[in-house]
Amino acid sequence: MKKQKSAVAVTARKTSPLYKDAAIPSTRRVKDLISRMTLEEKAAQMLCVWQSKAATMLDAAGDFDFQKAKKSFRNGRGLGQVGRPSDAGGGKDARSMAVLTNAIQKFFLENSRLGIPVMFHEECLHGHAAPGGTSFPQPIALGATFNPGLVESLFTMTALEARLRGAHHALTPVVDVAREPRWGRVEETYGEDPYLVSRLGIAAVRGFQGEKNFRDKQHVLATLKHFVGHGQPESGMNCAPSNVSLRVLQETFLYTFKEALREAGAVTLMASYNEIDGVPSHANKWLLQDLLRKQWGFKGFVVSDYYAIWELGYRPDTHGHNVAKDKKESCAVAVQAGVNIELPDPDCYLHLVELVKKGVLKESQLDDLVAPMLFWKFEMGLFDDPYVDPEEADRVVGCDEHRALALTAAHEAITLLKNENNLAPLDLNKIKTIAVIGPNADRGLLGGYSGVPKHNVTVLDGIKAKVGKKVKVLYSEGCKITIGGSWNQDAVVPSDPEEDRKSIAEAVRVAKKADVIVLAIGGNEQTSREAWGLNHMGDRTSLDLIGRQEELVKAMLALGKPVIVFLFNGRPLSINYVAENVPVIYECWYLGQETGHAVADVLFGDYNPGGKLPISVPRSVGHLPVFYNYKPSARRGYLFDDVSPLYAFGYGLSYTTFDIANPRLTKKKIRMDGTTQVSVDVTNTGKRAGTEVVQLYIRDLVSSVTRPVKELKGFKKVWLEPGETTAVTLEITPALLSFYDVNMKYVVEPGDFAIMIGNSSRDADLQKLTLQVTR
């Protein structure tokens, strides 16, 4: 009987194409499959459908329509990707999305000539952006945690939730370095420092991809974006040119991508909208071919940003680079640069077949671009076992365990900027009435690229839940920031000054009855967001509080009661008046679905805040740029103003106090290829348990090219009980001492290095040692 089974298996293997044999290595399966594909089938793998899902494969309810799909894809050529199945029909919950992806996948496996599966991509910036998905803090808030382990756990959770619903490819993480606070996409980044961004980006990729055993159906492909220079656009405008030197490009913007590829092996990258030195990224052969593939050895695939290939020519609703005369030429330029697939809908790449037949492109170029996408479809098991379990998706997505992790992240993100006379935390036993005031007090605060989580706890709801019947909670909106305020709402309508002042008067009447006032102010999802079109802006010329919010603050302070401010915003704000006059200030960024619970836990002392600023807070737009790692000649001073930031990178207080002492090097002198360690003793000198982030900064004191005054090169977060001391040790390796010299060689130069260690980037918070490096 066994011999008979074996014979059947051998016969089946001989008659079935090699690429269908799961026992064969993926590289061989790819080679075999491509040899069988027509030009048209190869081109189809470089296409995606997103908004066109409704027209090509869905019914009016957003469910799969076999007859419509059969008609739309009657040529049997297949398709590369389907974008965001979670948004079908206005939004799919976990079970219905799993059912939908199964149906779409089944169709393409059974109704394309070669049975090539599709890949589903989703947005997963801070949780799967889908109905029911667990939504945790925005990346800028995760940057404040200085906790790579936490970030990895969060994206492991996100990968599981997305994969169980049928997704394979996350368009995340953003590893842009945010050096321009006017830019509306700051919230999507981990901050202004390339080392911090790289460590958290690596953690995110590891969370998404795990050990790349994608057949476990628990992980997805990660996409590093936006490649490259997106985070310092001219004038702070999204998509504007990145006017940086090659050295800055290499050391600041490319560094994060290179490290995430080297250490975590991200499978995909997304090219950026912007240009560098006159060349848009989607047309940049040097960037995508010479550097990425040849120098760095990248074997994955590059996806276009949405509509960016069209923008190589001219896109009327936003802009164009005009390096192509039409969509056909845009197609050729992008293929030659090395963009594997066009997102989000069939557009410029519809000309692929024609351009090959005319000799503008070679079919071998398509082979090279299609091969890595097929390889990862094989590696994910999509040819062999592509379906997901809707019941399991329903059970896991948004579960209590994931909700608890989102709360942990929100706790760690909150950053205490000021606590005059230790007013915070509040003692419930000493308060009878609390007034919760402000435009951000009773609204969901998720930020951009968010889904609709099962829970979305407002500040007001969180405080009410915390105090129960012990304290009376009063509420007043105080004023508005904008009318509506939805991220998706194109038009941004300023609030009416007269109505705002009526609301402020009402807030004063309410607050008079309270013992303490909690103000929730800042920005909203409209005032800091991706500016994706002329009708959908999000970049600003001012970083001041919008509308009548400062008037509201002044009115509350005038009552003579304790005032506590919680800031919610997607970018740093120039809160000069607040900083000078309000006794307690917390920077929250966007904390996700558990916002209210996290705020209440911190406010009443059930959690001790330990966040650190991942980006400097400027005093005004006139102070920009304000990033801490500037060159020696860059901050000489201003007439009539302080040159320092309002709050520095790495800064953040606690309800307890810490002493960092006894800095020491294991070796004070090393060779250029040598290593050493720097250690400090950290003691919790206060009365509460809490966290401190020990930060290591380095500067080459004399060098062949100018170097920043300091650069973050290491950090470690420690939890200490009152009175507890621990030694923190950080490695110093050649990689941390290297830079691009006058000949653009990445080297360690001999000489003295300043080793600075402390709890923020401020000179006053750092202790200094000297390391001597010899040949």
From TrEMBL:
Molecular-function GO terms, alphabetical: beta-glucosidase activity
InterPro entries: Cellulose_Degrad_GH3, Fn3-like, GH, Glyco_hydro_3_AS, Glyco_hydro_3_C, Glyco_hydro_3_C_sf, Glyco_hydro_3_N, Glyco_hydro_3_N_sf
PROSITE patterns: GLYCOSYL_HYDROL_F3
Keywords: Glycosidase, Hydrolase, Signal
Entries under Pfam families matching the protein: Fn3-like (PF14310), Glyco_hydro_3 (PF00933), Glyco_hydro_3_C (PF01915)
Residue ranges of every copy of the Fibronectin type III-like domain listed in the record: 692-761
UniProt catalytic activity: Hydrolysis of terminal, non-reducing beta-D-glucosyl residues with release of beta-D-glucose
PANTHER family per record: LYSOSOMAL BETA GLUCOSIDASE, PERIPLASMIC BETA-GLUCOSIDASE-RELATED
Protein name: beta-glucosidase
Record organism: Telmatobacter sp. DSM 110680
Upper classification of the organism: Bacteria, Pseudomonadati, Acidobacteriota, Terriglobia, Terriglobales
